[in-house]
Specification:
This protein has 104 residues and is α+β, with helices and mostly antiparallel strands. The protein is built from four helices and three strands.
Length: 104
C-alpha cells in the first residue's frame, strides 16, 4: 500500500510534515476541518506545499523522520525542489549544532 509524505504550510507560516496512507486531498481536508486536535489545529488553514509517494510504508516513515529533523531552510529548499542546495544546508546545520539542553 502506498504512503505519502507531505509538508503543509500553516497559517502561522510554520511547516508541518506528516505521513498518510489515504488520498492526500482527504488528509489535507482533515487538517483544515480540524478533525484531529494536533499541531495544525490552531494553525488552520493549511496549504499543501510538498509531497512524495512511497510504495513501502517503512521507506515513508524513514523519510518523514528525516524531513522532520531538518531546518526550516532545508525544508524550504526541498519544497522549491532545489535538491542541489540540500547538502550545503546540511553542512551549515552541522557547523552550528543546537546547544545541549541536558547535563552530560
Amino acid at each position: 500500500m502506498e504512503a505519502t509524505i507531505y509538508i503543509v504550510k500553516c497559517s502561522d507560516d510554520s511547516y508541518y510534515t506528516g505521513l498518510t496512507k489515504q488520498e492526500i486531498d482527504a488528509r489535507i481536508w482533515e487538517h483544515n476541518a480540524g478533525i484531529n486536535r494536533g499541531y495544525t489545529f490552531k494553525r488552520r488553514p493549511v496549504e499543501l506545499v510538498f509531497m512524495e509517494v512511497y510504495e513501502r510504508i517503512t521507506d515513508a516513515i524513514a523519510r518523514e523522520r528525516q524531513i522532520k529533523g531538518w531546518s526550516r531552510a532545508k525544508k524550504e529548499a526541498l519544497i522549491a525542489l532545489n535538491y542541489e542546495d540540500l547538502p550545503e544546508l546540511s553542512k551549515n546545520r552541522q557547523a552550528h549544532p543546537r546547544p545541549s539542553t541536558g547535563s552530560g
